[in-house]
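thought: fold this chain, then report.
action: predict
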Amino acid sequence: MIILLAILVLVVVVLLASTLTVGTRRRLRRKRAGRAELTRPPSPPPPAPPSTEVGPAAPPEARPDAPPSTEVGPAAPPEARPDAFEPTPQEVPPSLLPAEGQPPSFRERLGKARGLFGQYVGSIRSRGGIDQASWDDLEEVLIKADVGVSTTASLLEDLRDQVQTQHMNDPDALVDALKERLIEIVGGSERSLNFEPGIPNVWLFVGVNGVGKTTTIGKVARRQVALGRSVVLAAGDTFRAAAADQLGRWADRVGADLVRGSEGGDPGSVVFDAVQRAASHHADLVLADTAGRLHTKVNLMKELEKIRRVADRPPGKVTEVLLVVDATTGQNGMMQARQFTDAAQVTGVVLTKLDGTARGGIVVAIQRELGVPVKLVGLGEGADDLVEFSPEDFVDAIFS
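observation:
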């Protein structure tokens, strides 16, 4: 009995010791974990998700690792992009060209010349009679309009005689007399373009660079094709490749044939080949471009004489030599007209850019001093803005 009680006590003591040991170990582990938690460095916060907010991008210099921008913006100008090129504009097929419409009017296009004359004419009309100030105003406006000194002096002398003979003292009558006198000066010549059926007619176009000679040829070709004539264009300006290219585009537009030579070649041979082409194809007309010769170079003017002789050989015949003059050049255009008239026997003048200047009086100077009629005038940049010169419409437009 005593033995059993001892064994029971021993078992109870062992169980209690075991329970105390397990609890002690658990408490020690919790204490150690607490101390470790206090001494451990704080963990970094988790990375934030990428922002979806749209805002201005950082400049490239602030983001060296940024990829190249794909933003679409205005293209760099050609000079900033050496690999860029400008495509050649497509020419409009002849079938899509606008039909011949109403030509521009002198009154509509000569606003600058009318503005110049209007200032002085208004001053003359406002006076009670004809006095010295009236004559001074007339002289000044005629000189400014590039009528020329000699032509102005002759014109005023004739008007003074008329005023004295008719005892005229009405300013309006003086202005009317001036208009009539101007019409007489510029209207006394035949202005139609010469054409002889049955042979290849050759029209030579001469003039210095920059006056619009090649463009004028294209516009004349357009007019002649519209009249039902077959046309051959001769690119006789062999010293300027752009001139031949430009003439080629006009040939495509209007349905004309083109003859061109090698760059720097003999212009006379190009004109000769064009005449032969016209003869073999029974074409009516050869429109021949020539180099923009400086009128101060005697040897170059001699070359123009040679081109004319070549073009005038059978089967062709030169029926027109048209001098193209820029109206904005004023009296310098008169000097050109004198030189070219002597070298190439000019038969008519084409006055370009008349709508862009107040110096329309060059028409009067050319007609009176050279006796060469102004046959065509340019009243704009459009294909149909080259029109026949009308003395009455011209004078009426600058005085209205």
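thought: worth noting. Residues 2-39 form the longest helix (38 residues).
final: tokens above.
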